[in-house]
Amino acid sequence: MKVRIPTPLRSYTDQQAVVEAEGATVDEVLVDLDRQHPGIRFRMVDEQGRLRPHMKVFVNADMVRALDTPVTDADEVTIMQALSGG
Q: Mind listing the pLDDT tens digit for each residue in 10-68?
């Protein structure tokens, strides 16, 4: 399935905005993404296995917070990172 990567995390994907990953759940997709692009999952998931608060994951058009959300090969996963500043 296609996974859209936000600009701040593209250093892990050789600047690719869209990459392919496999899995039956959002977490499995992130694990596969980390297998291909080491270190990227830690930027999204904390030590307790929860999505970090500043990260947003969408499956198609629906925002999800549960990493056990099921996905299929026909789905598109979009990762977004909240930015703050002053």
A: 999 999 999 999 999 999 999 999 999 999 999 999 999 999 999 999 999 999 999 99
Say yes or no: domain 2-81 is CATH 3.10.20.30. Answer: yes
Query: Whole-model pTM?
Result: 0.92
> Could you tell me the residue ranges of all domains in the chain?
2-81
Smallest CA-to-CA distance from 34 within 19, 52, 24 is with: 19
The whole-angstrom separation of Cα 18 and Cα 1 is: 10
pLDDT in tens, 58-73: 999 999 999 999 999 9
Number of other residues whose CB lies within 10 A of the CB of residue 43 = 17
Question: Residue 25: helix, strand or coil by DSSP?
Answer: strand
- Cα separation, 83 vs 86, in Å, equals 10
User: Residue with structure tokens 């399935």?
Assistant: 1
